[in-house]
Design goal:
mainly alpha; 70% helix; 3% strand; disordered N terminus
Length: 207
């Protein structure tokens, strides 16, 4: 008769995100959520009537937008966060393969090689970072009206409004993809993921 000792549950899980990285994500998501909700209350008449207190909503929207880069800047103190930024900023041949498969709607794991982050996540991170900076810049132009000429303020308002709509659509897609992947959400919530999920979704990742 032989006795089999099961491996601890933690042995089947891999560390993916540090505590600092998870807090950066949560606080950034919270601030972005406040910006989106307050923007909707300012531009959708039905919500504006329901909420009221437009001046307060404007102030909350402005300060949440101004604070949006703060979590990322604070996160730079974390070595793990800086390391992941480097991963997000590097595109390799496998990323082009992943993007081609995504365009063809080829969902086979073998056709979508990925390191710690896949090409879609890298494109999203770059786009949302750039969009945030544009929103911050145009928002400041709209806020400090006495510092810029009218044509600048008009252009800034146009860009701010349409980019806000685009961000809302992209965020909805991001949330939808997260809802479809419970293990990815668990990784962001707890910091670890299952080995099976990592081997399937990120086969080139070497933790």
């Amino acid at each position: 008769m032989s006795l089999r000792v099961d491996a601890p549950a933690d042995a089947a899980r891999l560390p993916r995100f540090s505590r600092a990285e998870r807090w950066v994500h949560r606080t950034t998501a919270a601030l972005m959520g406040v910006c989106v909700v307050t923007a909707a209350c300012l531009y959708v008449p039905q919500l504006a009537e329901l909420v009221g207190r437009r001046e307060l909503v404007v102030r909350v929207h402005e300060w949440a937008g101004l604070a949006l880069p703060v979590p990322v800047l604070a996160g730079l103190a974390s070595r793990a966060f800086r390391g992941d930024l480097r991963f997000l900023n590097r595109f390799g041949p496998h990323d082009r393969v992943w993007l081609r498969a995504a365009l063809r709607r080829d969902r086979r794991p073998a056709s979508r090689p990925a390191g710690k982050f896949n090409a879609g996540q890298k494109v999203y991170a770059a786009w949302i970072a750039g969009a945030t900076l544009v929103m911050l810049g145009t928002g400041l132009v709209m806020w400090f009206t006495h510092l810029t000429p009218l044509v600048w303020r008009t252009s800034a308002t146009f860009v701010h409004d349409w980019l806000a709509l685009t961000i809302g659509i992209v965020l909805a897609g991001h949330i939808g993809m997260a809802l479809a992947d419970p293990e990815a959400r668990r990784g962001m919530r707890t910091g670890s993921v299952s080995r099976e999920w990592a081997e399937k979704e990120h086969p080139l990742w070497r933790p």
